[in-house]
Design brief:
Length: about 475
């Protein structure tokens, strides 16, 4: 009788276990975590604070051209200053690009950091340098040898509510965790981001797997019984013990899949249409809105990757992301097309955080992996076939925007020289930014994790919270 029941359980598991497969798909992200929730709690610091706080990272892959957006130099030679003019903002002494008028109207709600610098001029090395807070072992390739910031947060906050996502990443379809150096490295794949891809401004957009939740209600109890029988089945197929700790991660995946909170966080139809319109009905705006909904629902780290602003390209002299080489685009034509979408999305997100009373709990960071060359380089465009201006990679100086988090906003921190080539005052590194972020989250940057060799490494090797923001 016992043997017959076991055969039935296996058969049902294999033939009717679509939800089991679904849960196991998510548990690929959640599996192999080596510590219990209780041990994770012991690892965390400032737990009272960490229950309240969150971060939204808007990642501008390709690199933000600082001299065309947040750090214009109208007195520089023309081959540096380009075609755009600065405009005054709501805060005296702070100027931004003329194509960022919505930024200008809310400058009292953000701070600009103009003096960040690092030494990696390639996309891959710069991604890893900025997103991990460590000098990468190799400047090539996007696979991290140290965990990204989001994965660190995921590890430090794994004891949070079962049905809240710790780390998400909005990006284009077909990418993976290594596409932007978001990997978890020696923390293990279970701390990699929950990938949310596609364009949420499209009518048929949904988060794969979460979108099927309403159809599962009547079958959920039966599926749970099937999953509970997996332990008996597992013992016969896993002599090496590879699934030894999968129970909790499969359960957490199951909890996520059946979570009303998670489903509703991604359901933009619940938003006031006027709010959606304010953000902009393209990928930049709607990704930013999803991020706000996620942190409001309990997500600790929501990462929004802004690349193509959506809709048809205005011509063959623009580029998919922010990588404004002359061979890719006409840097100023591309910016005239891209910046209005960016302006609307970021300003709406900032206003929304403040209007909803999230400005102390949620910290917003807007950055790319480096700036772009202040000196304009002209080349023939690959697509346009004509000579056009562009800017190349430039890690010597870059600008970042921060908002919320209870920070001191309405200010500019640091400055660059007359050509925006290098910091003139208050030089900072990406680690100083992350030290500020971790402080906001109540995470001790001296906490260590063993690397691939077993050597304990701190969350950050250096970096001091930016005092002007505190």
């Amino acid at each position: 009788m016992v043997r017959r029941k076991q055969r039935w359980t296996r058969r049902r598991f294999l033939t009717a276990g679509s939800l089991a497969s679904l849960a196991m798909g998510h548990s690929e992200v959640l599996r192999l975590r080596g510590l219990t929730a209780e041990a994770a709690q012991a690892d965390e610091t400032g737990r009272g604070r960490e229950q309240e706080t969150a971060v939204i990272l808007v990642w501008l892959t390709g690199g933000l051209s600082h001299i065309d957006t947040y750090d214009l130099k109208p007195e520089a030679p023309r081959e540096y200053r380009g075609e755009f003019n600065p405009i005054p903002t709501k805060v005296g002494g702070i100027d931004v690009c003329e194509h960022l008028p919505m930024h200008a109207a809310i400058a009292d709600k953000f701070a600009l950091i103009r003096s960040v610098t690092h030494g990696f001029a390639g996309h891959d090395g710069a991604h890893k340098r900025v997103l991990t807070g460590r000098v990468p072992k190799s400047p090539t390739g996007f696979v991290n040898d140290a965990p990204g910031v989001g994965s660190i947060v995921s590890r430090m906050r794994e004891s949070r509510s079962r049905d809240s996502l710790v780390f998400t990443s909005g990006q284009r379809a077909g990418t993976n965790v290594d596409a932007y150096s978001q990997g978890a490295a020696y923390l293990g794949q279970s701390y990699a981001p929950f990938l949310v891809s596609g364009d949420p401004s499209e009518k048929d957009w949904s988060v794969p797997n979460l979108s099927v939740l309403p159809e599962l209600d009547r079958r959920i109890d039966d599926r749970r019984k099937l999953l509970s029988g997996f332990d008996r089945f597992r013992s016969q197929i896993d002599q090496a013990g590879l699934l030894e700790s999968s129970d909790r991660y499969r359960q957490k995946a199951f909890d996520l899949l059946t979570s009303e909170k998670a489903r509703r966080a991604f359901d933009l139809t619940e938003e006031d249409p006027a709010v959606r319109k304010r953000y902009g009905m393209g990928p930049y705006g709607q990704q930013a809105l999803v991020a706000r909904r996620l942190v409001e629902a309990g997500t600790s780290f929501a990462n929004v990757v802004m690349e193509h602003p959506g809709g048809p390209s205005p011509g063959n002299n623009v580029v998919y992301n922010w990588d404004c080489h002359a061979v890719n685009c006409h840097v100023f034509h591309d910016a005239r097309w891209r910046l209005p979408h960016f302006d609307r999305a970021v300003s709406a997100l900032i206003e929304d955080l403040y209007q909803r009373g999230l400005d102390r709990r949620v910290m917003l960071v807007v950055t790319g992996e480096f700036g772009h060359t202040p000196r304009i380089n002209s080349q023939k465009g690959t697509a346009s076939k004509v000579l056009q201006p562009g800017r190349d990679h430039w890690p010597g100086a870059m600008s970042m925007l921060v908002s919320g988090g209870g920070l001191e906003v309405g200010q500019v921190i640091g400055s660059t020289d007359s050509k925006a080539e290098h910091p003139r005052s208050r030089p900072l590194s990406p680690n100083d930014l992350w030290a500020t972020v971790y402080r906001h989250l109540g995470i001790d940057t001296e906490h260590t994790f063993p690397d691939f060799t077993g050597r304990p490494l701190p969350i950050l090797p250096d970096g001091i919270p930016i005092r002007e923001l505190l």
